[in-house]
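To: structure desk
From: M.T.
Subject: fold request, one chain
Message: Could you run this one when you get a chance? Sequence is below, nothing fancy, just the single chain.
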Amino acid sequence: MTRPPQKRKGFTLVEVTMAIALLGGLGVALYGVLLGSLDTANESNLRLRALLLAQERLELAPLNVGPQTREATTADGFSYRVEATTHPVCPKMVQLRCTVTWQIQKGRPIRSIRLSRLIFDPSGRLL
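Reply: Done. Structure tokens follow.
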């Protein structure tokens, strides 16, 4: 008499090992995507803060009558430079330029953003 073949229950060691390896690889890939998205979010936040600082400095520049170039560094590591020059075509126009620079981490490239603004200055008091 021959026994009928029995159906196996459960998984083999090879199947379990392959499933663990597949899940581990998937976990590492998802971790990399998560870190990349956090880095991008941090960089976007810093870029937004730099843009807001440049806008603020350009808005306040006409109130700060004095030297044609102002430079400073904020407490959170942003450096900015505001320059005022006479427009080459219209001498009654003053061109204000603000450049903000920052570094995300040491060893990474320095980032910068630059904004410009034209102001009509018939009295010539800004320069």
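Reply (cont.): The first helix runs from residue 13 to 60. Let me know if you need anything else for the meeting.
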